[in-house]
Amino acid sequence: MRVLVTGGAGFIGANFVQQTVRERPDAVVTVLDALTYAGDRSSLEPVADRVTFVHGSITDTDLVDSLVADADLVVHFAAESHNDNSLADPAPFVTTNLVGTFTLLEAVRRHGARLHHISTDEVYGDLPLGTPQRFTPDTPYNPSSPYSSTKAGSDLLVRAWVRSFGVAATISNCSNNYGPYQHVEKFVPRQVTNLIDGVRPRLYGAGANVRDWIHVEDHNSAVWAIVDRGRIGETYLIGADGETSNLDVVRTLLEVFGRDPDDFDHVADRPGHDLRYAIDATRLREELGWAPRFTDFRAGLAATVDWYRANESWWRPAKAAVEAKYAQSGQ
Ligand code: NAD
Ligand code: TDX
């Protein structure tokens, strides 16, 4: 099977490509990635001899057309992915997430390739704290940020192309991922690399906000379950029952580092900060028989800490610039 992976030099995409090469000997993988600040070719280094890498944008109609013409399956990870960046400058989010997804859909329509579109639970907005409510595939879209609204728009484009043009696509909306190769701008790697440097973690506001954490390998095994056994046109929510407050994540990391549980700082909150995300993954578990492997969050975090300790040369070049940017917004 010829698989085109967009955004394959990013966090989840690179893990997906590595996992695919390891577990799917029949897959012939091509990566299309623009190598923005978030893309790093070295994340594919362990499988470089098994992957064709194309440096380019999903908004490049001719390039996308020629690559999709040679693919049986397109797995679409490429996106601008960071909420804080979308508040500072929404423009690239509109271009990549909306125009880029449109460009891919048109190519898939022309060539009849199967598409799996990767999206986020943030399209549903947020939930109140301290309730049993969870997102389901029927939850109405209600995105809060430029990031989540452009992801919501991209999902709606995919749904319309399925219905209007018969494109063979599926969609997944996943909760917060953690694991190796995540950019140091994101919450977990930012705090892990701060702790490695002896700097106190930075918690937005009170730290009561809840995210539903899933290991990146569990996200990617769910993506393959959907590609293999999912129903065309369907949306699957991916989550592993990992609800944890930001404060508890920081406290767990402090414990892993053997530091005092109060050794962190509260900093300026994110404007429009979503309170809580929680996924009901019943459809994925019952219809497709998927289950997560990383069910012990503390152990998964500790392994992630080990990875960042062992791979300083991967994250160090980006660290100072990310922190300088956060300092400007008091975070
Ligand atoms: P990331 O920012 O780490 O990686 C994004 C990748 O896309 C980078 O390699 C970047 O170079 C590439 N890219 C950006 N613009 C491009 C363009 N115009 N053309 C080609 N490539 C481009 O993001 P991530 O965290 O790996 O997220 C991947 C996908 O998963 C995104 O669609 C995101 O919305 C979704 N998602 C992420 C999470 C999470 O917790 N990180 C959770 C749910 C869904
Ligand atoms: O330094 C920090 N301190 C802090 O308290 C940072 C960077 C974040 N936070 C908080 C904000 C969020 O409540 O931690 C939580 C997680 O923050 P992010 O890593 O920025 O993730 P989030 O905004 O929840 O979005 C992530 O999950 C859904 C991904 O970045 C998205 O791409 C995905 O769609």
Give structural notes.
- Residues 4-298 form the NAD(P)-binding domain.
- Its EC number is 4.2.1.46.
- This protein starts with a strand and ends with a helix.
- α1 crosses α7 (216-229) and α2 (61-69) packs parallel to α4 (91-111).
- It folds into two domains: 2-178 and 213-238, NAD(P)-binding Rossmann-like Domain (Rossmann fold), CATH 3.40.50.720; 187-210 and 243-275 and 297-323, UDP-galactose 4-epimerase, domain 1, CATH 3.90.25.10.
- The protein is an alpha/beta fold.
- Strands 3-2-1-4-5-6-11 form a seven-stranded parallel beta sheet, with helices on both faces.
- The radius of gyration is 19 Å and the shape is globular.
- The mean pLDDT is 98.
- It has helices at residues 11-23, 61-69, 83-88, 91-111, 146-165, 187-196, 216-229, 246-256, 282-288, 297-310, 312-328, and strands at 2-6, 28-33, 51-55, 73-76, 114-120, 169-174, 177-178, 202-204, 210-212, 214-215, 235-238, 243-245, 265-267.
- The structure holds nicotinamide-adenine-dinucleotide (NAD) and thymidine-5'-diphospho-beta-D-xylose (TDX).
- Nicotinamide-adenine-dinucleotide is lined by residues 6-7, 9-13, 32-36, 38-39, 57-59, 77-81, 96, 100, 118, 120, 151, 174, 176-177, 183.
- Residues 6-7, 9-13, 32-36, 38-39, 57-59, 77-81, 96, 100, 118, 120, 151, 174, 176-177, 183 line the site of nicotinamide-adenine-dinucleotide.
